[in-house]
Design goal:
The complex is a heterodimer of chains A (about 425) and B (about 240).
Chain A (H helix, E strand, L loop, with lengths): L3 H14 L2 H39 L3 E6 L14 E4 L3 H10 L3 E10 L3 E3 L2 E3 L2 E5 L3 H5 L3 E4 L4 H5 L4 E4 L1 H7 L9 E4 L2 E9 L19 E5 H8 L3 E4 L6 E4 L3 E6 L5 H15 L5 E4 L1 H44 L1 H9 L4 H38 L8 H26 L3 H6 L2
Helix pairs in contact in A: 1-11, 2-9, 2-11, 2-12, 9-11, 9-12, 11-12
Chain B lengths: L8 E14 L2 E14 L3 E5 L6 H8 L7 E6 L2 E2 L5 H11 E4 L11 H10 L8 H11 L15 H13 L5 E5 L7 H16 L3 E5 L3 H4 L4 E6 L2 E7 L6
Parallel strand pairs in B: 3-8, 3-9, 6-7, 7-8
Antiparallel strand pairs in B: 1-2, 1-4, 4-5, 9-10
Classes of the chains: A alpha+beta (about 425), B alpha/beta (about 240).
The structure holds adenosine-5'-diphosphate (ADP) and magnesium ion.
The site of adenosine-5'-diphosphate has 12 residues of chain B, from strand 1, strand 2 and helix 1.
């Protein structure tokens, strides 16, 4: 003979199937509640991981100064052909000489030239920088090595290729030792880097060129391309002149990061007459990301709570109607020997079947939504294994909580009255 | 006139009252009612509408509580039992048959017959065999997986009778069991009662129809919640 619980569950399912439309509509409430919980958790988790990766890539102990083109003031002076802005070698010197508690300072200069090997040509970011760049950013060498002090001292014509550039120029062979043309000059490739953690923001839009990086020694860059990067601006005779595009300030102790950041801001505000720079502090971003996530979780929690509450009330409503409708059945069962606990179990099982059914479908939908979001909205999502479990557990719990009152109503009916009910 | 029965009582009531407070006045559905139904007896309980027949049956069936007085089933005092114990008693010792059959619509015939066993603490191993045998006995073994809605009134009442027998009750309580049936179907049902009586079952059959009352072994006539008349029928007099 089947176990009593199994029979009770089967009985509950039979009763629910008697009103298929009503049961499935009731289930919908829980279904959407559960799936929205899972989907929102997945989107929140994805955004958080994305932010963390981005921040980790910048280096959480770094303060990053970047050149920013200042906003143009009305119609520009016709005679001023060159727009000079950005960070200066003087800024670099000031930081190196006067700031305490700093591990290293790494300047970056970007050079706009084509990169060519054989018949293949592309226009990645060419970055001239110091060997310390790799420590400051935590980038990892794939093959060969990164730039070293000897390259720097000897103004060597060497380069290190980023992953994408290496893949594009050397799809089948190794680039190590090959002569690559940057602008008009040849550089020997001494190494390649692993890709950065791929960020959503890195993904090239379809049809666009892949971006990538090529690294050359700072001195070599200055030797061949000058200390001032002068760039023709598209569609005009104007030019842009930038000394340094970026300065990475690596701080020794994490707790000093805010101090160094404000010192940098102060110094730049004092020395620059226009706002042609920005200060990016990954640690601040991290804190802000955590705060955002916290707020997101509160909002999410409230929405999820409300939607599940609505689902639960829907279930309770239907179960109350069911109990009234089945008053006579309850009377019959009581007359034939059902204890109050039997009746309670019977109706609780029905609500739990309803809500758990909605929970199962909700979990399925909740896992499907994030992957759809990922595909169509181009957002990263992460369904953690705990999320469906949590959502399902809550839905079953909702069934019990909101089923208790209707079940209690059913169980405490007077059998004689119930039997007389039409 | 009363037939003093030498057998052990199936049900015994001692100054039982059931009072419904209605506004200012009390309705005494049963009024200081003392009586004893013997084991294996087949009683028709008669009386005009409102005389207290259903109330008596509900109290004996342990689904209604007495306002005062005591009563016992097969020697066991039940007036002090709690709801759980009463439910247990119903599932083990009582068989109910109702005027409107009262089968459970979402269950098939076999499952309906099994309901009382479902609620027993220790259901018998051979419950399903027993249910099948009872279905066979009431002539419905080819309808086991039908739903009540697919059966005629007479067939439904046969299922209800099978259901009332599945727990091998000490007392069968039938309230207007033939009230919804045409006379030939009713006669078939009454034949079943006769058979059960012949097997030694104790049966209380509420009816207001004299010709049905005449089929019973003995008749208890109520009036305003009190005993009006008690008499025995000559066997085969009908
Ligand atoms: N729930 C109730 N509330 C008030 N009065 C009731 C209730 N049930 C029965 N009565 C009254 O008790 C008396 C006996 O009723 P009942 O036992 O149903 O009679 P019968 O079955 O003989 O027609 C009637 O006067 C009826 O109105
Ligand atoms: Mg009645």
């Amino acid at each position: 003979m089947q176990s009593t619980l199994l029979r009770t569950v089967r009985l509950g399912v039979q009763s629910l199937l008697l009103h298929k439309l009503r049961s499935s509509l009731t289930t919908l409430g829980v279904l959407f509640g559960v799936s929205s919980v899972i989907a929102m958790l997945a989107i929140g988790e994805g955004a958080s991981i994305e932010a963390q990766n981005q921040i980790r890539q910048l280096g959480s102990q770094n303060v990053i100064l970047r050149a920013v083109k200042p906003p143009e003031q009305g119609v520009s002076n016709q005679r001023q052909r060159v727009l000079a802005y950005g960070l200066l070698d003087d800024d670099l010197a000031r930081i190196e000489e006067t700031f305490p508690g700093i591990e290293r300072v790494v300047p970056l200069r970007e050079i706009s030239e084509d990169v060519r090997f054989g018949s293949r040509s592309m226009r990645p970011r060419i970055i001239s920088t110091l060997p310390a760049y790799i420590e400051a950013t935590g980038r990892v060498v794939d093959r060969g090595r990164f730039l070293d002090e000897f390259d720097e001292a000897s103004h060597a014509n060497v380069c290190v290729l980023g992953y994408e550039v290496a893949r594009f120029l050397f799809p089948l062979s190794s680039p190590l030792g090959e002569r690559i043309k940057l602008g008009a000059d040849y550089f020997i490739c001494v190494g390649t880097l692993l890709p950065r953690v791929l960020l959503q923001s890195d993904r090239p839009a379809p049809g666009k060129d892949i971006t990538g990086e090529v690294f050359i020694p700072l001195n070599t860059g200055a030797k061949w391309f000058g200390k001032m990067q002068v760039k023709m601006r598209a569609g005009s005779m104007d030019m842009e002149a930038v000394e340094l595009h970026e300065i990475i300030v690596a701080v020794k102790e994490a707790e000093n990061v805010p101090l160094v950041a404000s010192a940098c801001r102060e110094m730049l505000a004092r020395e620059h007459s226009q706002r042609d720079y920005e200060v990016v502090v990954p640690l601040e971003l991290l804190l802000r990301a955590e705060e955002t996530k916290r707020i997101f979780n509160i909002v999410l929690g409230s929405i999820a709570g409300i939607s599940l509450l609505v689902g639960g009330i829907g279930i309770m409503n239907v179960m109350l109607a069911t109990v009234t409708e089945r008053t006579r059945e309850i009377g019959i069962r009581r007359a034939l020997g059902a204890k109050q606990s039997h009746i309670i179990t019977q109706f609780l099982v029905e609500t739990v079947v309803l809500s758990a059914g909605g929970g199962v479908l909700g979990v399925a939908l909740g896992i499907a939504i994030p992957s759809a979001v990922e595909r169509f909205a181009d957002m990263r999502t992460v369904v953690t294994p705990g999320a469906p479990l949590l959502a399902f557990g809550i839905s079953a719990g909702i069934g019990v909580i909101f089923g208790l009152y209707p079940a209690w109503r059913a169980a405490t009916m007077d059998p004689v009255e119930a039997l007389r009910h039409e | 006139m009363s037939t003093a029965s030498p057998v052990q009582a199936a049900a015994e009531l001692d100054s039982v009252s059931r009072v419904y407070p209605m506004g200012g006045t009390d309705v005494r559905a049963l009024d200081d009612f003392t009586f004893s139904f013997g084991q294996g007896e087949f009683w028709a309980i008669m009386g005009s509408s409102g005389s207290g027949k259903s109330t008596l049956l509900n109290i004996l069936g342990c689904i209604d509580r007495v306002t005062s007085g005591t009563f016992s089933l097969a020697g066991e005092d039940v007036s002090l039992l709690d709801d759980n114990a009463l439910s247990d008693l119903r599932s083990r010792k009582l068989g109910f048959i109702f005027q409107s059959y009262n089968l459970i619509p979402q269950l098939n015939v076999l499952e309906n017959i099994l309901v009382p066993l479902f609620y027993q603490d220790n259901p018998p191993e051979d419950g399903e065999q027993r249910a099948r045998a009872l279905a066979e006995r009431v002539g419905l073994s080819d309808r086991l997986d039908h739903r009540p809605q697919e059966l005629s009134g007479g067939q439904q009442q046969r299922v209800a009778i099978a259901r009332s027998l599945v727990n091998d009750p000490t007392l069968i309580l039938a309230d207007e069991a033939t009230g919804n049936l045409d006379s030939s179907t009713a006669a078939e049902i009454l034949d079943l009662f006769d058979e059960l009586h012949a097997e030694g079952k104790s049966i209380l059959l509420v009816t207001h129809e004299p010709e049905i009352g005449a089929r019973a072994e003995r008749v208890l006539r109520l009036k305003d919640g009190r005993i009006d008349e008690v008499y025995g029928n000559q066997r085969g007099a009908f």
